[in-house]
Write a structure and sequence with these properties.
The protein has about 150 residues and is α/β, with parallel strands linked by helices. The chain has five helices and six strands. A six-stranded mixed β-sheet has the order 2-5-1-6-3-4.
Length: about 150
Amino acid sequence: MLRNFDNRLNADVIQCLRAMGHGDDLVICDTNFPADSVARHTVTGNLLRMDNLTAAEAIEAILSVMPLDSFVDKPAERMEVGANPADIPPVQAEVQKVIDKAEGKSWPMGSIERFAFYEKAKEAYAVIVTGETRFYGCFILKKGVIPPKG
């Protein structure tokens, strides 16, 4: 065990988060997303797993160690709901609350049309599939920086 470290983060995820650089994208997806086939196109080329966690729980753990990119307007993006792109299903509202809490301010997510999301996900650093079973539990997070002390 590690002290002051979220135990929902497994070794593969920790290694990935550490290796990512400023501006790299991380896909967090639900169980229905074509995670394995999309992950093969990413920088890592391998699917990472955070099973038995909802999307919000996984993102909460990730944001406990990874800052979002403050140099862009929308460092977190969600997959739009098919025919109703402005709809915010409960899974996405939960993730928005996690983001706002982690960042200490309201920071609304951007949105991406479903098929455009698939294409953008292929260009990400990595894909993490969660145990989320609700539809549209798919997100892209852009890694930020940690400023020097003093």
